[in-house]
Amino acid sequence: MAAMDQSKIRNFCIIAHIDHGKSTLADRIIESTGLLTSREMQSQVLDNMELERERGITIKAQAVRTVYHAKDGGEYIFNLIDTPGHVDFNYEVSRSLAACDGAILVVDAAQGIEAQTLANVYLALDHDLEVFPVLNKVDLPSAEPDRVAAEIEDVIGLEAADAPRISAKTGLNVDQVLEEIVARIPAPQGDPEAPLQALIFDSLYDSYKGVIVFCRIKNGTVRKGTPIRMMATGAQAEVVEVGYFGAGQFIPCEELSAGMVGYLTASIKNVRDTMVGDTITGRDRPCSEPLPGYKKVTPMVYCGLYPADGAKYPDLRDALEKLQLNDASLFFEPETSIALGFGFRCGFLGLLHLDIIEERLEREYNLDLVTTAPGVVYRVHKTNGEMIELTNPSNLPDPSEIDYMEEPIVSAEIMVTTEFVGAIMTLCQERRGVYLGMEYIETTRALLRYELPLNEIIYDFFDALKSRSRGYASFDYELKGYQPSKLVKLDILVNREEVDALSFIVFEDSAYERGRKMCEKLKEEIPRHLFEIPIQAAVGGKIIARETVKAMRKDVLAKCYGGDISRKRKLLEKQKEGKKRMRQIGNVEIPQKAFMSVLKLDEE
Amino acid sequence: MSAAEEWELYLHLPFCVRKCRYCDFLSFPAGEEEKERYVRALIEEIATQKNRPQAAGRPVVSVFLGGGTPSLLSPSQIRRILEAVRSSFALADGAEITMEANPGTCGKSALSGYREAGVNRLSLGLQSVHEDELRGLGRIHTFADFLATYEAARAQGFENINVDLMSGLPGQTESAWEETLRRVIGLSPEHISAYSLIIEEGTPFGTMYGAMSRDLEVYGEYEEIPARRRASYGDLPPLPGERADRRMYRMTKELLADAGYARYEISNYARPGRECVHNTGYWTGRDYLGLGLGAASLERGSRFSVTADLKRYLGFDGGDFAAGRQYGDVRRLSKRERMEEFMFLGLRLIRGIRAKEFIRRFAVWPEEIYGAVFARLTEQGLLSRFGGETDPERRYALTDFGLDVSNAVLAEFLLDERE
Hints:
The complex is a heterodimer.
Chain A: E1 9-16, H1 22-32, H2 50-55, E2 62-69, E3 75-82, H3 90-98, E4 102-108, H4 115-126, E5 130-136, H5 145-155, H6 174-184, E6 197-206, E7 210-219, E8 221-223, E9 227-230, E10 236-238, E11 241-245, E12 250-253, E13 255-257, E14 261-265, E15 279-282, E16 301-307, H7 313-326, E17 331-337, E18 341-348, H8 351-364, E19 369-371, E20 375-376, E21 378-382, E22 387-390, E23 402-417, H9 421-430, E24 434-442, E25 445-453, H10 454-457, H11 461-468, E26 474-485, E27 487-494, E28 497-498, E29 504-507, H12 511-525, E30 533-539, E31 542-549, H13 565-580, E32 582-585, E33 588-591
Parallel strand pairs in A: 1-3, 1-4, 4-5
Antiparallel strand pairs in A: 2-3, 6-7, 6-15, 7-14, 8-13, 9-10, 9-15, 11-12, 11-14, 16-18, 16-19, 16-20, 17-18, 21-22, 21-23, 23-25, 23-26, 24-25, 27-28, 27-29, 27-30, 30-31, 32-33
Chain B: E1 7-13, H1 32-48, E2 59-67, H2 75-88, E3 90-101, H3 108-117, E4 121-127, H4 131-137, H5 143-155, E5 161-167, H6 174-187, E6 191-196, H7 204-219, H8 227-230, H9 242-258, E7 262-265, E8 268-270, H10 277-284, E9 287-291, E10 296-299, E11 302-306, H11 310-315, H12 318-322, E12 327-332, H13 335-346, E13 353-354, H14 355-362, H15 366-379, E14 383-386, E15 395-398, H16 400-404, H17 406-411
Parallel strand pairs in B: 1-2, 1-9, 2-3, 3-4, 4-5, 5-6
Antiparallel strand pairs in B: 6-8, 7-8, 10-11, 11-12, 13-15, 14-15
Helix pairs in contact in B: 1-2, 2-3, 6-9
């Protein structure tokens, strides 16, 4: 392919709140530029993973290149980069944005701006992207495009009066969007002759080609045989193939030059060599400095993952290794629990990330897992001056060795209709939130700013938020830093034996309440045995709460005659099978789901 | 196994006046014509056994006419069925021939006819002496009906009678149960079966009491169930909790022992020598052949059962029966499964299982298979050994506590696949 005329390239992404129609608009753009006929289209082409489709969210960044014949007679290359749509993947979002020159802001004309929209728009503006708004779902009876356009102008300061009013679902006015892309998104500016400088915005492991690196060429040109180097990780390789993104397929080409978006492969074995945000340069003719913004992603949430069947430990390790090939932000290391045996301490970007990994392990690798309560990374400052980052409550040093502890704090933005402001403020107070301020977006909606400890929001904060605002609140946060806090380890004793896998770190003043609820919950989860089982919560060896699982005194199948024997066998087998799915602690059988009890303390 | 090994027959007669609310047996109301068609099919099925080499010459030690309500058949129908049995099978001298009968379905002359047809043991479903409890269960008779039937049976010469009773009924008090027991003891039947009510899915009771019964399994006592759950049950009288249920079991055992009835199985009590031969066969692993709709069999290590589809059953002819086309779910038991059954059925008997019998069947001492289970259960006070460690006559039996929680105990005798 001859050197590409950069003025005919448009690299852009779509910013939207979940359900505002990002993927549907992407589908329409792909469809109307003729890459696929609508019959060939599976709905939402860009959400590749089965899980992504089910949950209606994007987990990995995707990209697709289409050709658009504009009304001015020109033929334009569109590179649409789809960004992950969840706060857990904020950093990935920022890297995807950095690969673009502009963004389409999709706002639901019935619902208006949400907290996440706002966060992503600011992120895009921070990256100097040209952002233009589109009002979607104007076909809905509840749509109020005028009101929402005014809101966009007031809140974000983007000119929105002439914004295309579309229905991505029916295709209404999507042609206007295509013209706006040509008119408003700037063409890339880069020097194809300069030293190579390319931004990695995602990567994918393929068992034949090795790592497939998704990149945006900022300067220079790369082709087969180019020796390259990743500037942050230092990994070196020789390019085997370059190409661009068809719909759901990789299309090889001669070269990628400045302004283009595409992929390269170079027999790279590990995605950790191609971290998102890193800069690819030429080994022999490097650029003077990397592109800005790279940061090493660190997990925010940790939990223990154990195979329900101890014999499946090697299978779990293999599965985690395979997932890690595609997911550089997944962390794991072996750990041992007295209660659960051999397993892994795993680190995740957030609870959704955890959820997704857990579900993929169970679905794609057929593993039955026991998960321990997720926790954040605490900093433990010891009296000897040493500081440890605590990811497993069991490793908490003896209290006498602890000088003080710190916990991660986030700054959160919550957007809510004014009638629920009181309820949401109460919720934030309960979660030890520090009020920073409130702005009225318009007369009926407010943006609340809080500082919250991360361990107060990782479990069920989002659910609580939704239920206390009847679904109207939206929420975004980012890690702000660490702050000293009065934290204690809450231990659970079952039949007087401490169960390490049930311990968790808790704010001292909440310990009694959490301990009490935990005992109540476990009382419901642990089936009755032939003996009485005390369940106790303790802090520093002192019992603070207790419940008792009463002994079972009667369990008889009164009748068993000729016709009942097969049924009786099934009943006994079920009883035995049920026991197999439990963990033996001393002589008590604890069901697997009990280890997640701490997550459910706020139900009802 | 020699061809001469004893076995027994079960004949299923699936008709009833109407379903009781707790009943999940294969039974239904039917007209005279349908009953007669059924009897003919059953007789045809029995007749084809004549030519089956597996059955030839094998002594039958008991026959059980169960249902449903077999006493809805006329004496002549019963006679024809038993004649067919005699002509196809080697009925042993003095074989126990039991028929289930419901009070209110058979008068004096009918009873006399059954007696003449060869029935020598009656099993009467009474369940309770209290009219409110009988109504609650959906029974079709009163206690007075029962008394009339019982007296008539005695007068017609039945000297081996079982009475079925049921504890754990909704709203039942311990004193109500005591009265049921005392009044039945006063009649001196030879055998008493005292069950506790099981709430089965797919029955009216399952719909009414399912949630309550499951919650009771979790919480033990009605009062322990969280109020918000209890509120969902509606206006039903509570099922007795675990404590009351257990006291009723104890009371049953004591009152019956005082009156000369020994408990020989979890729910069965008998005067000496009057234990039910037929049911004991089930618990000791004796072969049995089930004939009639849905009837289950155990024959030479296989379990199988007749179709439960009445239309199909009535459509079979002699050729179908001879070819075994009435059977479904044939399942060959592995040695492991046979050992498991030997244990979980045999331990229902109060006398337990004999080590010698285990080695005779499986050519291995039970300790080699179950040593660890025996040790664990003994330590927990659920199992006892009678006789020395090497005594060939040694037995293992559940303790009273073990019997109370027998489901949990018996499940321990299921082996892992690879063992």
